[in-house]
Amino acid sequence: MDNHFFKNLEKKTGVNMKEVLDLANSLQNANFKDENTVRGVIRRVSQIANKPVNKEMEDKIVNSIVNGKEKLDFGTISKMINKK
């Protein structure tokens, strides 16, 4: 994709595409059964999306992913964060 596409997306969403791509790259070999890894990803997504996640919501998301109820991807976490 071209740079123009990402710039337009950044303007519309306020989300830095470089951060999103860096996060996506970091997820490729991550262990999603590890609670600390999942918490780190949730905090990073929260920061990128500028949506604070309280401890209770973080715990719910972590438990859901670590126990295999949800797959770990940006979309799943984003939906869970936006439900709060």
From TrEMBL:
Protein name per its UniProtKB record: Sporulation protein
The organism's place on the tree of life at top rank: Bacteria
The organism of origin for this protein: Metabacillus indicus (Bacillus indicus)
Cited Pfam families: SpoVIF
InterPro entries, alphabetized: SpoVIF
